[in-house]
Amino acid sequence: MLSLKLLWRNLRSGEVRVLAISLILAVSVVSCISLFTDRLERSLIQESHTFLGADRVIKSSQAIPESWLQQARESEVRAAKKITFASMVFAKETMYLASIKAVTKGYPLVGQLTIADVAFSYDSDAVTVTDAIPEAGTAWVDSRLLPLLNIELGETVFVGEKELQVTKVIVHEPDSGSSFSVAGARLLMNALDLPETEIIQPGSRVSYQLMLAGKASQIDSLIDNLSPQLGVHQQIVDIESAQQGLSKTLTTARKFLLIAAVVGVLLGGIAIAITARRFAVLQIDQVALLKSLGARSNKIRRLYFFQLLYLSLVTSGVGLLIGHFLQELIAISLSELFTLEIQNARLQSYLLGVFTGLVCLLFFVMPPLWMLPSIPPIKILRRELDVGLLKQYWQFILGLLAIVLLIIIFSQDLLLAAGVILALTVLFVCSGALALTLMYFGGSVGRRAGSVWRLGVAALERNKQHSLIQMLVFALAIMLLLTMLTLRTSLLDEWRLQLPEGTPNHFLLNIDDAEVSEVEAFFVANQVETKPLYPMIRARLTHINGELPSAGVQLQAEALRREVNLSWVETLAQDNAIVAGSWWDDWQSKGDKGVSIEQDIANKLGVGLGDELTFSVGGLSLQARVASIRTLKWDSMSPNFYFLFSPNALDEFYPTYLTSVYLSASQKILLNDLLQSFPTLLVIEMDRVIEQIQVIVSQVSFGVELVLVLVLLGGFLVMWASVSASMDERLQEAALLRAFGSSRKRLLNSLWVEFSILGGCAGLMAAFGAEVLLLSFQYWVLKMPIALHWFLWPLGVVGGILIVGSMGVYACRKVTFTPPARILRDVNS
Amino acid sequence: MLSAHSLTKSVTTSAGTLLILDDVSVSVEEGESLAIVGASGSGKSTLLGILAGLDTPTQGQVIFKGQNLTELDEEGRADVRAKHVGFVFQSFQLLPGLTALENVMMPLELHGDNEARSKAQSFLTRVGLQERLQHYPKQLSGGEQQRVAIARAFASSPDILFADEPTGNLDTKTGAHIIELLFELNREHQTTLVLVTHEARLAKRCSHRLTVEAGKVVDDPIPVDDFAPVDDSMPVDDSMPVEAKP
User: Fold this and answer.
1) What stretches of chain B adopt beta strand conformation (E)?
2) Interface contact A291-B78, CB threshold 8 A
3) What is the pLDDT of residue A825?
4) Closest to A296 (Cβ–Cβ): which among B54, B75, B242?
5) What angle do CA A776, A777, A780 make, to 5 degrees?
6) Given the DSSP bridges, would you call strands B59-64 and B33-38 parallel, antiparallel or unpaired?
7) In the β-sheet with B2-13, what is the strand arrangement from edge to edge?
8) Using CB atoms, which residue from B82, B97, B242 is nearest to A829?
9) Fewer CB within a 10 Å sphere, N or C end of chain A?
10) What's the confidence (pLDDT) of residue B245?
11) Residue B216 — φ and ψ, nearest 5°?
12) Residue A442's pLDDT is what?
């Protein structure tokens, strides 16, 4: 209880208050970031799951047995079936090749279906969100299907033999963009009506999906149970495999937010270490007194241990509370800005906050206090006795260890941790050397310069170790801020680069050879720019080097189990890159036809340069040698092909053409004219997919900006702590100078000189460290090409001077405004 | 009560070994008072620290109540200090974050005394600070601070009280009051008193005097009137909370 009393009394006395505020701020910054990161990440994953309409999907080319649904129900996993295929839809005298989707109750399991009673309505009053699916005997359709079939809502259409009444239009379906096989206007129907259509016959090209949603562990165990029944026809799809580009973006965002959290801990930790050291120095007298009063070392150790334990418990609690409310506030504003359903934070993110508090206590607070119990009691009589507090470099090493530990735990990414540690080491070694050089030259130059400069430089030089540490701290804080700032902007830039304005948002397929010029003329007439037309033929890969692919390869490569699109092109698209072999310009044909393969599929097929592939094109055989291996960007929204042939290689086959266009919302109505003129044309509306991706990108970047604000707070905390740590010394010096007749303005100017030099040097070192950090992050984590960030250098130096200068002068203003006699009295008492 | 035999204290510095105390012997009986006098740097404070068990001699031994302090480890000496010893310091050594009352309660609480508050209150009343219980050291004058320190020293009912220049930071008038108070309480509680001073008036009040010069006890003590002239002409501003060091 005595320790609690002591803590309470110490709290009143300012010294503990500074430590407590540092702890509270560190825990609240960290817990806010970790809570928010966790929630945002889970929300984004949830949001991205709506691309699937489920958490996991079992895709099959054969009908899903009813027993699987039963098994899912038993495993408490929500399940629904989805059957998709293309089929002609008839209405009176018109017909149209529609994309049919038959679903069972519960669809979609994740995300929401939006419908309306009025065609072409995007007005929020007219649309409703529904949990239902079309009743048996009815169908819901894309608005544009109505004019295509020349019908109104309420009229009936035939899908095969079954007559369905069209009751609603579909405004938005969450899983619209999950597959490129979606083509043509949608007709959504109840799976119960499917048998009566008599459309699905053996050999029909139909995709069956069992959609699953629920706890990941339960889905995993269900899939484990089903796995004996899963064969080559079934494939399990999760968000990773469904949206590779998006999942990469999510991973990058997650790492970024994690780094932000670690930076928060780092800044909080530094602030805590500085205040804890000051606390320890102030406690020396108290410990000496307690010892003279007969307190044993163990008793003192206990007294301080429990004081710190209570302090960290209380501050962690308060910090968690503040962090919780702060992130709640962010989450609310986020969900108001974007229609994002924010998930609740998990208990483990709160635990992370508490764990952080504990690590801070162990690695930042305890070390400087460790030697307190061994202070000799004679210290009370011999004030000049030097007390061996933990050496500062040990404290530094321990702090670094803590940060490394936290980075590894937070990011679970050794490469990332290595990058951060490398940058920190480089920063500390270089800045140490630079700071010492500066003090050496600064000392001699300063002594010759004007008196204001002399005072400022002398202040830096007087306590080299102290100045060095301050410079390192400032350099570190500025480095992190610069890194955050650059990462944030470059991260956004990268996203923007991936999806620039005017990115094609519609794919047009199945354009007949004879229609090419008409389609082009149609877009020219309507002032719509099109991408080049790619010829396309459907084929099946049958043999590799004249042999049937092994069962293992068949299982791995989906391309072997279905028809693939082949194309040919003379010039390599911008988003493609050759990784092996050579493009057609340098390729030695030796009379063979050449094919360029996408890297992943080449790996799955196990083929390399020079291997011979045999395709079956409508029963005709086509042989080609692998001339090159390419990487490509699926998320560039341009037409891309696994197999690209050499020019003229496909001349003997009858191709259709594929292109992509950008249509603004107002131009979308053009699709109806287009489809009426060319009824066999297929359209994939990528704009809906792009829209979803862009919403996610803006959600992430908004979150990142908010996190940056919190990190800035941490940076200021460090500066505040480090300035107040040197306050006593400064007050005494200033009082002496004032007593000797130095003017207030002179003192103020010398403070500016001191902190500007400190800030400028720290900024220079920070720019260097940030550059190292950014380059390694770019190279290893983002896997982007390396590019130097020139703007960092002037920004670092000028920013350092302004931030450190003004903060330092502001923090020391007390020094210039307090009467000298009073300072001398306070310091001596 | 307390005796020291052939105490030697040397410290090793970069300049070589420095002899601070050289073969010092001293003894004081229960209820007596001993003044250790000497010039600045003569080693008198070191002697006080060793006698009080705050420090250990390089050679020699200190016997307190029949117990050899030099054979005890730091923890053992801490126990002896806790049970028997009180201190008054030149710079008062009050904890700045604690009120006068809490400062006096501190040693009592440290020993688990349940009546710490009431005892501390009565001692502060005894030294005339009943109106100042909730004041912080900064709000008290130097004399008042030293009175709090004296209350703290007597609160744990020590058998022996060590005072290191108790008037060293005070002006003459306040110092005189403090000396008065110290000896009054000493009489009331039958405490043995060992003090270090260079002030003649204070040394005079003690029953025994020991003069230390360059670490050695000087056989022929200098007359107390001569060794430390008191400068009464120095102006004193009582309104200032803490007086500057001379």
Assistant:
1) 2-13, 16-28, 33-38, 59-64, 67-68, 85-88, 160-164, 192-197, 208-213, 216-217
2) yes
3) 55
4) B75
5) 75
6) unpaired
7) B16-28, B2-13, B59-64, B67-68
8) B242
9) N
10) 35
11) -120, 150
12) 64
Alpha-carbon span B181 to B153, nearest angstrom: 12
Best probe of the B interface among A7, A299, A378, by most B CBs < 10 A, is A378
Across the beta sheet with B160-164, the strand order is B85-88, B160-164, B192-197, B33-38, B208-213, B216-217
Q: Hey, are the CB atoms on B75 and A5 less than 8 Å from each other?
A: no
First to last CA, chain B: 35
What six digits make up the tokens of A358?
Answer: 């504990």
Find out whether A670 and A685 touch, Cβ atoms under 8 Å: no
Percent of chain A with pLDDT over 70: 76
Residues of B in contact with A13 (CB under 8 A): 95-98
Report the run of H or E that residue A523 belongs to, with start and end.
helix A516-525
Residue listed under structure tokens 């791995």:
A556
Structure tokens at B206: 């003690």
The pTM score is: 0.63
Contacts of A382 in chain B (CB under 8 A): 45-46, 49
Report chain B residues whose CB lies below 8 A from the CB of A293: 81-82, 87, 106-107, 110, 156
* Strand, helix or coil for residue A130: strand
Cα A530 to the center of its chain, rounded Å:
32
State the DSSP code for A617. E
Q: Please compute, for residue A251, the number of CA atoms within 13 A of its CA located in the half-sphere on the CB side.
A: 14
pLDDT digits (tens, 9 = 90+) for A422-475: 766 776 787 778 777 766 776 677 666 666 777 777 777 766 666 776 777 777
CB A644 within 8 A of CB A565: no
User: Residue A246 above 60 pLDDT?
Assistant: no
Convert the pLDDT of each residue in A56-90 to its tens digit: 888 887 788 888 888 888 888 888 999 988 888 99
- C-alpha–C-alpha distance, residues A575 and A633, integer Å: 6
Query: With bands split at pLDDT 50, 70 and 90, how would you rate the model's confidence at A140?
Result: very high
Which residue among B87, B91, B109 sits closest to A2, beta carbon to beta carbon? B109
Mean pLDDT of chain A: 77
User: Is 90 exceeded by the pLDDT of residue A339?
Assistant: no
Of A532, A631, A651, A629, the C-alpha closest to A583 is A629
Q: Which residue has the tokens 């699905």?
A: A200
- Residue B237: pLDDT band (50, 70, 90) is very low
* Residue A711: Cβ-neighbour burial (10 angstroms; 0-12, 13-18, 19+): buried
> Could you tell me how many residues make up chain A?
829
Q: Write the ipTM.
A: 0.83
Find the chain A residues whose C-beta atoms sit closer than 8 A to any C-beta of B.
2, 5, 9-10, 12-15, 285-286, 289-299, 376-378, 380-383, 825, 828-829
Compute the half-sphere exposure of residue A800: CA atoms within 13 Å on the CB side of its CA. Answer: 34
Q: Higher pLDDT residue, A416 or B119?
A: B119
* Number of other CB atoms surrounding residue A604 within 10 Å: 16
Q: How confident is the model at residue A362 (pLDDT cuts 50, 70, 90)?
A: confident
**Chain A partners of B79 at a C-beta cutoff of 8 Å?**
294, 296
Residue B221's pLDDT band (cuts 50, 70, 90): very low
- C-alpha to C-alpha distance for B62 and B51, rounded to whole angstroms: 7
Q: Do B97 and A829 touch (CB under 8 A)?
A: no
Closest by Cβ to A293, choosing from B55, B81, B138: B81
In terms of pLDDT, which residue wins out, A417 or A239? A417
To test the contact with chain B by mutation, choose from A381, A825, A828 the residue with the greatest count of B C-beta atoms within 10 A, namely A381
> What type of residue sits at position A278?
R
Interfacial residues of B (vs A; Cβ cutoff 8 Å): 45-46, 48-49, 52, 54-55, 74-75, 77-83, 85, 87, 89, 91, 93, 95-98, 102, 106-107, 109-111, 137-138, 156, 164, 240-242, 244-245
The DSSP secondary-structure symbol of B53 reads T
